[in-house]
Amino acid sequence: MTYSGTAFSSLSHLLLEKREDTVVAFGSEGDITWAQFVADVSHYTQLLHQTPQQNVALCARDSYLFTVGLLALFHAGKTIILPGNYQPEALEELSSQFDLLLCDDAITPLRNTETQLITTGHNSSPFVFAALSPESIRLILFTSGSSGTPKAIHKTLDQLSVEVEILQSLWGEQIPHSRIESTVSHQHIYGLLFRVLWPLCAGNPFARHSLEFPEQITHHANQDTVLVSSPALLKRLTEEHKPTKLRCIFSSGGPLPFAAANHAEELFSYRPIEVFGSTETGGIAYRQQMTEQTPWSLFPKVEAELNHENCLRLRSAHIDPTGWYQTADECEFVSKNQFVLKGRTDRIIKVEEKRVSLVEVEKRVDQLDYVQECAVIPMQQAERLILATAIVLTESGKTKLAELGKGKFWLLLRNELRRWLEPIAVPRSFRVVKEIPLNSQGKRQVAELEKLFQ
């Protein structure tokens, strides 16, 4: 079987291509060929054409099944909802946004929403695919918002297509005939683009399942493999010392420490390409850290300027075709197309390179029966960033704390919060206070909060 050699295709014409026995995806179950992929997409496109629901949520752990569902939804003309995580309560909270859940068997079905499982191996009569209209196909990605509720980010297939073409123009010549391994989820914009859509258009087969541990990365590494990863996992490679080659490494989700970039080059003979962006903007800039002061270079066709707070304003067809988009990223330009980051000016932070809204975490803690009020702050603990929470207890909370003791009570709170939050967003440290410290303007005294945990 051929693992590449395929000409680059646009997303709108992808299923009109004849790719014969090229491989689309691989995993422990074996390789999936182009013919099987087209048959599976055909099956679900026909099925979705017969369903009246227009707004469809797509969730899957398996990247191949996710891709089958995604392409079928494109060709069925549905509006696609991509939830940010799989936690049952978080999915339930979003259920008013969709009428049907399309998922694999790793996802818990919802109580009051129709669920359709995605599988492979279908041999139904082929669907006659037509070219897609990229401007009319809409996706809605949900991510942490500053208001504390999941924020809906609207994208068109046209915006995604423009960015895939940018990625191909930047790095397509570096990675032909490659296999794509990944540590990041396709449910988020970075994984969606780098793990699924770009490889699909370029004819590079992708892994069905994520790599989750550092030793898996080194085990799967070879000179024909491209790794799509995050700083969180690349920083954990410190115990790996046996060199092996990778064709290319991408990292996104936050700045990669310079020491981790150096160690990755020692291990894999390749210095990671870092991509800077967000769900709202997609990718906007990139760098390979040759020094600790290496600036970020803007993507082609991205215009940027600073507002009065020195925060980036951006304009590009894949960000917002109608005008400028204002970010909360404070920057300094060192040339016309290069800048250095100074930090964020809002309350959305990155913990282990995952985006976390402090407002949302506070909202989830506040809704617990045992908590009257709380304040959540990020704290550095050893070499990692954690969330620390000061809480004012209700009477039932005080009773429960006396009954269980601190250790078991903290465990109870964390277990309750996991119904709503991803593990990385669950606070690791708690302190009970009589009241949240405020200044004369009624604003929280962060310095006083930090002292509670020192």
Task: Explain what the structure shows.
The protein is α/β, with parallel strands linked by helices and 454 residues long. It folds into 2 domains: 11-343, 3-Layer(aba) Sandwich (Rossmann fold), CATH 3.40.50.12780; 350-452, 2-Layer Sandwich (GMP Synthetase, Chain A, domain 3), CATH 3.30.300.30. Helices cover 28% and strands 28% of the residues. It is built from 12 helices and 24 strands. The chain has a 10-stranded mixed β-sheet. Strands 6-5-3-4-7-8 form a 6-stranded mixed β-sheet. A 3-stranded mixed β-sheet has the order 2-1-10. Helix 8 links the parallel strand 12 (248-252) and strand 13 (273-278). Helix 1 crosses helix 2 (63-76) and helix 4 crosses helix 5. The protein is globular.
Helix content: 25-40%
Which oligomeric state applies? single chain
Which homologous superfamily in CATH is the superfamily of the largest domain? ANL, N-terminal domain
Alpha-carbon Rg, integer: 23 Å
Tell me the strand percentage band.
25-35%
Specify the CATH class of the largest domain: Alpha Beta
Question: What's the end-to-end separation, in Å?
Answer: 59 Å
Extended strand count: 24
Name of the CATH architecture of the largest domain: 3-Layer(aba) Sandwich
Low-confidence stretches: none
Number of helices: 12
User: Strand order within the widest sheet?
Assistant: 9-11-12-13-14-15-19-18-17-16
What is the CATH fold-level name of the largest domain?
Rossmann fold
Query: Shape from CA axes?
Result: globular
Number of domains: 2
Rounded mean pLDDT score = 92
Biggest sheet record: 10 strands, mixed
Structural class of the helices, strands and pairings? alpha/beta
